[in-house]
Amino acid sequence: MKTNLNVDTQALREKILDLAMRGKLVEQDAGDEPASVLLEKIKAEKAELVKEGKIKKSKKLPEITEDEKPFDIPDCWEWVRLGDMLIPEKSKAPTKNFVYIDIASIDNKVNEIIDPKTINVSKEKVPSRARMVVEPGDILFSLVRPYLRNIAIVPVSDSNLVASTGFYVIKPINIIDFKYIFYTVLSDYVVNGLTRKYMKGDNSPSVKKGDIQNYPIPLPPLAEQKRIANKVSELFKQVDIIEKNVAEYQGLEQAMRSKLLDLAMRGKLVEQDPSDEPASELVKQIQAEKAELVKVGKIKKSKKLPEITDDEKPFDIPDSWEWVRLGDVVFNYDGMRIPLSISDRKNREKIYDYYGASGVIDKVDTYLFDRTLLLISEDGANLIARNKPIAFLATGKYWVNNHAHVVDGVDISLLTFISLVINGMNISDYISGTAQPKLTQANLNRLPIPLPPLAEQKRIADKLTRLFEDLDTIKQNLTTVS
What we know:
alpha+beta, 5-stranded mixed beta sheet, 12 helices, disordered N terminus
């Protein structure tokens, strides 16, 4: 099964912002004018704007208590209410053509406005929420589901920009660094704090503008704000490079895995050994073993499967191999399920893994099988592509629901090889259903698979294991910037 590269780039970004908020990302400079002086300038600037009639006088926000200060900050910094750093929003119904920014216009992966819609007021209905006047440098903060981080800076534009009333338009006063404020409201400290303390509602949980205005934030000296914003931007670019490297490697790695599986299935990964007992003899042994198990009542006699036609053979295989139906070389245990309710299972003494459509989904009491090949059948609940089941060996005792198939075989090497084949083949023709695609037991048994001699199966599995381990090692080491 595919594993993820061990690089959590989102966690890196969050750590960078956390260090920034605590004054630990860049050094303090004793020559910087302290934030206390900056606060006085902000008050004076806002008073002048009110006097000139450019903004309305804001309601005085309460003093910040010691209990509201969640961490220590440098001596030259100050704790402030976010609203004290802002000038009031502007709202106005648009009367001429405009570019509309709604929540869907924000790409919360990169926190940028990427898909605003141009509205022609003479030809189109103006959205009722299109009211917020925005300007370059404003910060849009979605009030709905703030944890999704639909947050972005309004870029420089010649267009008449209007935002949805679903945003709080954060307008930093012009004597502070708006990029510092942007990174502050993007941080876990602000987003998680607002979500945890103030978000309310069921269908569209949201926070109020007043909650954001009252939120206490750490304020550095202006010069340090600029250093912090520049450093965060620089480090984010480095993280973007790491993310790009990861994505590129994952694509290459998947292609390499697919190629190795393809070579394995065609008999081109390891050399054939003329002394190996041919697969035709293995098939005879399996049939004899199945007949004996039927005779002693351990499995039920299965319905004879049709011969494989040449049209069903997608590629050539070595002479010592055989094309076989999966159902002819494994034992299918689907019919042996025990219909127990959850309460029944919980009354049992021991706890085992519970396999469903997405793999291990719980721990439950009792068990159904020991070591067998587990095929996870798509039913629409899985997170991987719906036309591609996954197969793997499950060990120990476990419970399986009816969204997964369980098969066994005469040898662990056979099961290992079959799991590799299932994961490497295109079996979309055997997937049924559209809304909830799945691989039925009948179609599972009908799957044509290439079968090597048992000894070659072991060599193939061993070589693939080594090669896949090498790929995993590369993944673990890919954490540096190219």
